[in-house]
Design brief:
706 residues, Immunoglobulin-like, 13 helices, five-stranded antiparallel β-sheet, 33 strands, eight-stranded mixed β-sheet, alpha+beta, Rossmann fold
């Protein structure tokens, strides 16, 4: 215990005053012998004892009062261990950064960690006082943030009470940066950021949002000593011919984010029915994969499936969904306009390899190659009439460097496209633009013009620098949905020669999907009847470009062929995470409705879907299965299994490993403020002593009256 004004203890000498008064003021009775009063002596002795007791109690009270007054004026204090942060009341600016990521749903003492954080935040709000300007910033990725500080503490309390764990991982760095921005706009001198976070290292990235000149940072320690967690971090479903015609292989990756080995039980469910179980032993901080083999229910080509594990303290990441489907085989007729005896020089060499990588039986594409003469009805061996090709056996026809076909063959192909077929046309040295103008226009979205060679006259060193590149592709188009915004696998390809296109006024059913750096069209799409046409203005081999040796070529031609065949990749083949957007092809639908796992979705109709080849859906706020209901041009409405998709958690948020102290930004004092730095709290005692003085004075008055 200490004293703020120790000199005031001199006043303790005042205890001698009541003692002196007591001693001086005592009455000394005169002894008078009177025999008649002898019988009263016994009663007098009892009364005298009571009076002495009262006088001694009165003396004690007065001594204690004098001593208490002196000690109270000296302002005694003591210290104790602080259980919370040091909060100063009064005018100031403060921001409460609260981790509301899905990890905040971790169960601590039969309640979520976020409930504990919300209670602590309400205490902080009360301690700051009504004069403080405060804002609440949520630390989940992509969370809506406040635009200003406010003194409306009732509204802030309502926000804290309504907090629920989001389905996204933490982005603590971004939340701290937003807190610094809010405080920078305040005129208050005292600026503080209170951080209530699990402190997972995955929430910190890049440089700290402020330096030593920023606000004071006060981390509130609410994290339990250990946060063991096991989660399903990935799930894939692939057709497995070895398991039968309806067989599907499910690969579930399980991550153990604890410091000891664990054994978990996994359940595979197709739809709502559990079809397989399995156990998996995982070492500390390891990931292992468990494979299940199952068959899709009879009569279905696609359905949702899930793998789950027995629940732990964070149940939201114990289940993951996937769309499992039987692969729709696309039947492709490849027409070779420049056959060669040397295989790698052939016009179709790279195209066939891309459509059937590794010549796999489960590639999803059935390829049949013929020559241009066979398509034209001429037997290349005898020059006689070739057997007729039944176009009804194919979904897509690719004309690779094919010379102009006879009008009657063009008419047959055009009728086939109008009935729902798809055709891809790519030029080459065998293509004469003038001849194409005469007979092939029904199969083209736009007329061809003479090609240009951008490297003509260039030295070998200048050749690559003068080559064209692919730019400005339609990122939302089904052909390009598998590519990123910059897509180096496409952008790095060099084009040395391209065909130009003639002018056109037909824009209703025609769209340029990609361009070159000089502005020329690279890929053009058009609709004829219910069918589709794609025109690629360079070759599908390496004669005019080096695209076939880049990784993007395989995905580009596969997506193009599936788009022409109207057999798009199903949702299970692409990972969709909570908060991301999903691009859905519209096909011939006039209305498209999406329903999420919570029943909330979106409806695309009218101007939102008219004339569009795809729509973008962004309300993926919950993990689970998203159903798609479509209405076609005839008004028929049904659930579109081929468009359904699943959304899963970002597995980064399941790793709750604590970030080091260096990940936090410096506080305004130049170092990180933590509860351990100042865990002693001063408790002043003079207030209690003043109260005791009042009680003693009251007791003294009672004794005097008696």
């Amino acid at each position: 215990m200490g004293f703020l004004a120790p000199l005031m203890l001199v006043g303790a000498l005042a205890i001698g005053v009541p003692i002196a008064i007591h001693l001086i003021g005592r009455r000394r009775a005169k002894i008078v012998k009177f025999a008649a009063l002898d019988f009263l002596l016994a009663t007098k002795r009892r009364t005298a004892r009571r009076l002495r007791l009262r006088e001694r109690l009165l003396l004690l009270v007065r001594v204690v009062v004098c001593l208490a007054i002196a000690i109270a004026l000296a302002k005694p204090f003591t210290s104790c261990e602080r259980k919370g942060p040091q909060v100063t009341r009064g005018p100031q600016a403060a921001v409460l950064v609260i981790d509301d990521s899905f990890a905040a749903g971790y169960q601590v003492d039969d309640r979520t960690w976020l409930r504990h954080a919300s209670e602590e935040s309400r205490k902080l709000l009360a301690q700051l006082g009504p004069e403080a300007e405060v804002a609440i910033v949520r630390a989940s990725e992509g969370a809506d943030q406040p635009t200003e500080l406010t003194r409306d503490h009732l509204r802030l309390r309502d926000q804290l009470l309504a907090l629920e764990p989001a389905a996204r991982p933490a982005d603590t760095t971004r939340a701290l940066a937003r807190a610094a921005q809010l405080l920078a706009a305040s005129s208050h001198v005292r600026k503080t950021v209170f951080l209530l976070s699990l402190g997972a290292k995955t929430g910190f990235h890049g440089d700290p949002p402020w330096g030593k000149d920023g606000p004071v940072l006060v981390p509130i320690e609410l994290r339990p000593p250990k946060l063991p967690n096991v989660a399903i971090t990935a799930l894939r479903a692939d057709p497995d011919p070895g398991a039968g015609s309806r067989g599907v292989a499910f690969d579930a990756e399980v991550g153990n984010f604890t410091d000891h080995p664990v054994k978990v039980e996994l359940l595979l469910a197709i739809g709502d029915r559990v079809v397989a179980r399995g156990n998996l032993e995982i070492g500390a901080f390891e990931k292992r994969t468990k494979r299940f083999l199952a068959a899709l229910p009879p009569g279905t080509r696609a359905t949702d499936a899930s793998v789950s594990i027995t629940g732990d303290a964070l149940p939201i990441d114990d289940k993951r969904w996937v769309r499992s489907s039987l692969r729709d085989e696309v039947r492709v007729l490849l027409v070779d306009g420049d056959p060669r005896t040397v295989r790698h020089d052939d016009e179709l060499f790279y195209l066939e390899a891309a459509l059937r990588p590794g010549d796999r039986e489960d590639s999803g594409t059935s390829v049949h190659a013929i020559t241009a003469e066979e398509l034209a009805g001429i037997d290349p061996k005898s020059r006689g009439r070739a057997p007729a090709i039944d176009l009804g056996d194919f979904d897509v026809v690719v004309l690779a460097n094919v010379a102009a076909l006879p009008p009657e063959r063009v008419a047959i192909l055009a009728d086939w496209v109008r009935a729902g077929g798809g055709i891809l046309v790519a030029p080459g040295d065998r293509v004469d633009p003038a001849a194409y103008d005469r007979t092939m226009l029904p199969l083209l979205p736009q007329s061809l013009r003479d090609p240009i060679d951008t490297t003509w006259g260039a030295s070998p060193d200048e050749r690559d620098s003068r080559a064209l590149r692919l730019v400005k592709w339609e990122a939302d188009h089904p052909i390009f949905t598998l590519f990123s915004a910059d897509a180096p696998e496409l952008a790095d390809a060099k084009f040395y020669k391209i065909s130009l296109l003639g002018p056109t006024t037909a824009t209703a059913d025609r769209k340029v999907l990609a361009r070159f750096t000089n502005g020329a069209a690279a890929l053009v799409e058009a609709s004829i009847g219910t069918g589709r046409i794609l025109l690629f203005t360079s070759t599908l081999d390496r004669d005019w470009n080096d695209l076939p040796i880049h990784r993007g070529f395989l995905k580009l031609v596969q997506q193009a062929v599936r788009h022409l065949a109207r057999k798009h990749s199903l949702g299970g083949e692409t990972e969709h995470l909570v908060g991301g957007s999903v691009v859905l092809p519209t096909g011939d639908l006039r209305k498209l409705e999406i329903r999420g796992p919570d029943g909330i979705g979106a409806v695309f109709e009218g101007d939102r879907i008219a004339g569009r080849s795809s729509v973008r859906f962004g309300k993926t706020d919950r993990p689970g299965v998203y159903r798609v209901i479509g209405t076609d041009q005839t008004g028929a409405t049904r659930e579109r299994d081929e468009l359904a998709f699943v959304v899963n958690l970002d597995p980064r948020g399941s790793d709750l490993t604590q970030a080091p102290a260096s990940a936090l930004p410096a506080s305004g004092s130049g170092s990180v403020t933590s509860p351990a730095d100042n865990n002693q709290r001063r408790v002043e005692l003079w207030h209690a002593l003043a109260a005791i003085v009042l009680l003693l004075l009251l007791a003294e008055g009672v004794l005097v009256q008696r």
